Automatic annotation (TrEMBL):
<feature type="domain" description="HTH araC/xylS-type">
    <location>
        <begin position="214"/>
        <end position="315"/>
    </location>
</feature>
<keyword id="KW-0804">Transcription</keyword>
<dbReference type="InterPro" id="IPR035418">
    <property type="entry name" value="AraC-bd_2"/>
</dbReference>
<dbReference type="InterPro" id="IPR009057">
    <property type="entry name" value="Homeodomain-like_sf"/>
</dbReference>
<dbReference type="InterPro" id="IPR018062">
    <property type="entry name" value="HTH_AraC-typ_CS"/>
</dbReference>
<dbReference type="Pfam" id="PF12833">
    <property type="entry name" value="HTH_18"/>
</dbReference>
<keyword id="KW-0805">Transcription regulation</keyword>
<dbReference type="Pfam" id="PF14525">
    <property type="entry name" value="AraC_binding_2"/>
</dbReference>
<dbReference type="InterPro" id="IPR020449">
    <property type="entry name" value="Tscrpt_reg_AraC-type_HTH"/>
</dbReference>
<keyword id="KW-0238">DNA-binding</keyword>
<dbReference type="InterPro" id="IPR018060">
    <property type="entry name" value="HTH_AraC"/>
</dbReference>
<dbReference type="InterPro" id="IPR011051">
    <property type="entry name" value="RmlC_Cupin_sf"/>
</dbReference>
<dbReference type="InterPro" id="IPR050204">
    <property type="entry name" value="AraC_XylS_family_regulators"/>
</dbReference>
<protein>
    <submittedName>
        <fullName>Helix-turn-helix domain-containing protein</fullName>
    </submittedName>
</protein>
């Protein structure tokens, strides 16, 4: 039985007579993902259960099915123009995903990408459960050659790199999306898509974490003067979770707060040493670089450089205007 309303859909073959199940299940999968053909062994009992919800560019589905085969052949690709990327996260049981001449054998905890623009096959030897995330191609920011190198390769959290950090985070975020308020859901969904893009780029041979680090730190340098700059602001700007932001900085041997404070002090120290800025008071320089309290700025400056801002200005040869 297929039920639901946009943007959600659910299907269960449990209450259908056996002769109606296969057609109903194939319609449900084709409506939820992309056009596919389903085959089952008629002498073996099977039940299909599916629940899906769309949140902006992201669709989250949970599928229980097997034994059987899901095939997107050349005819389906030609008839159905949808070209999304599907990400299969195996939850229970096993699955074989075949695409682009490769076979990914998925066990619980494994993840694999497959591309709806080209034929693929999923072989299920037993009843299993999986979570299927579906996103447009554009947010992954991959070239076609990178996508072809990515499909039907097993991604797990034991291989190191971004996947080691991000796959557990991905599971938690997807669970949180399903429980969050409507106002919060789309923001979380964007974070899930960003994580998928990061994992995909690394698997395809890119350097996603270093690129993300450079993008974040370059952006923060332009915002050092904002006294209200917070880790949550930074995370929201780059569509990542606050927890992931903190982990990125930890992997660099620092914290968000310490990194921002150091960059602010460096910028203030540089300005204090410039003769052209001699007309600005130390309090004005401190405020310009995000310090709301002149006394806190002076204390932090002394702790970092062993002298007060005024002493540094004199030592640098700038005329003090205070």
């Amino acid at each position: 039985m297929l039920t639901g309303h946009a943007p959600g859909v659910s299907c269960s073959t449990r209450e259908l007579v056996p002769g109606d199940r296969l057609a109903a299940w194939q319609r449900a999968l084709s409506r939820t993902y992309v056009d596919v053909d389903v085959t089952v062994e008629h002498d073996r009992p099977w039940i299909g259960e599916l629940a899906a919800e769309r949140l902006g560019a992201l669709q989250i589905a949970t599928e229980e099915f097997g034994p059987g085969t899901i095939l997107r052949g050349a005819r389906s690709v030609a008839a159905d123009p949808r070209s999304h990327i599907l990400v299969r996260r195996q939850l229970e049981g096993t699955a074989l995903l075949l695409q682009d001449g490769r076979t990914a054998e998925l066990h619980p905890g494994d993840l694999a990408f497959h591309d709806a623009r080209r034929p693929f096959r999923i072989v299920l030897a037993e009843r299993q459960r999986a979570r299927i995330l579906m996103v447009p191609r554009a947010p992954l920011r991959l070239e076609e050659r990178q996508l072809r190198a990515l499909t039907a390769t097993v991604v797990d959290d034991a291989a190191g790199g971004a996947a080691d950090l991000l796959l557990p985070l991905l599971d938690g975020l997807v669970d949180e999306v399903t429980r969050a308020t409507p106002a919060r859901r789309e923001q979380l969904a964007r974070t899930v898509v960003e994580i998928l893009a990061t994992v995909a780029l690394e698997r395809a041979g890119g350097q996603p974490e270093s690129a993300l680090w450079e993008r974040i730190t370059a952006s923060v340098r332009t915002r050092l003067g904002e006294s209200g700059l917070t880790p949550q602001d930074i995370a929201d700007q780059h569509a990542i979770s606050l927890r992931y932001l903190h982990r990125l900085f930890q992997r660099q041997g620092t914290t968000v707060g310490a990194w921002v404070r150091t960059r602010r002090l460096e910028a203030a120290r540089e300005e204090l040493a410039r003769p052209g800025a001699a007309h600005r008071s130390i309090a004005a320089v401190a405020h310009r670089w995000g310090f709301t309290s002149p006394s806190h700025f002076s204390r932090t400056f002394r702790e970092s450089y062993g002298m007060s801002p005024a002493q540094w200005r004199r030592a640098a040869g700038a005329v003090q205007a205070d």
